[in-house]
Write a structure and sequence with these properties.
With 428 residues, the chain is an alpha/beta fold. It has two domains: 267 residues, P-loop containing nucleotide triphosphate hydrolases (Rossmann fold, 3-Layer(aba) Sandwich); 86 residues. The chain is 40% helix and 11% strand. It contains 17 helices and ten strands. It holds the Pfam family DUF3631.
Length: 428
Amino acid sequence: MQPTTPEPHSAPGKAAWPTVAVPGRPGHAPEAAPAADDSAPDTVPAAQPAEEAALDPEPTYGSELLNELRAQVAQFVILPSQQALDAVTLWVAATHLQPAWQHAPRLAVVGPAKRCGKSRLLDVLTETVHEPMLTINTTPAAIFRSITDEPPTLLVDEADTIFGTPKQAEKNEEMRGLLNAGHQRNRYVTRVVGNDHTPHRFATFAMAALAGIGDLPDTIMDRSVVIRMRRRAEGESVKPFRSRRDTPALHDLRDRIAAWTRPLLDEAADLEPAMPVEDRAADTWEPLVIVADLAAGPWPRLARAACAQMVAAEVAAEEDHPSSARILADIRRVFVAQREVDSLSTDELLHHLRQDLEGPWAEWGRNGLSPRELGSLLRDFDIRPGNVRLADGTQRKGYTRNKFLDAWRRYCPTVHSVNAEPAASPSG
């Protein structure tokens, strides 16, 4: 999509910042939201208790659009939870109201391994957000020059190739600085331009979605709505995304969302909703909650539930730990070799892992893989050690086999039964 010059906004200027640009593509956003289209596909909102539904505000045309958008996203990608699906839906709609926001939330789409649906989700976002700007091999200088009073939505795939190692992170420090500064309005960078090296101030404020393997730098994760993707399990299926077939419907929905949000810019800028979280988490989630409040229906409740649960999950998560699906396959082989015992002590599990001459665990770190490092690797898959009872009746710290079953089903799908031959270790 080529950048366009925004039309002037003629509504009374109530926003705190003077220039309020019109979101959406010029010529595609009528002055008022159209009446609900009876031909639009029916969507089924998430199940809710009757007493909660009775307390929901009356749904609006906007709530119908959000229902439709949620259903479209769910066709192509399996999100890790209903709350994550709701959050992605609200984040997409919020990109069409960027001139109203004080903070531009990042969407961090991360997963522990390849083939978790991260890039596919970015495909869908590209066709539904406001003015997408793919930043593959794009320099920070080019991004600076692309951000205006009506900013694009930045989309960064394979972010692990930018920030994955200390050397990469150091090389791309300017990009990290741009993404950090752009979370808040009126944070500029100054660069010299032209032959006479004249200082020029560049805007950074823009919403951004970043997808990659493993966590992004802490400073970016702290400014993000975090979506922790998982690989599809056997039996889970999605509709393949085909640009020629699917893009027109997504563009039509995008333009209807832009039309709905256009008259709401000043109202959105003035709202200060009650939030279930505080501080930076509240800053990041506030645009999503405001969109939900404008849409009404069940969305105000769904937005706050997603905010509270997903922020709490991130608070509980460990910071910056390595991850790899390789450890799951190797632990699976250990349990198979030990006749599928119910549990193994941490020491015994580490002993067997280090004995594998083809594995990396004997040379992991200074003295081989340690209990702490093993715990860090497995936290990506929500597997944690605990007190286990061993075959000899003693109790020790270790891991139970049943805690691995879901992760094995998702990341080691070639292992179908306890008698199956061990699968080759994935490379990560």
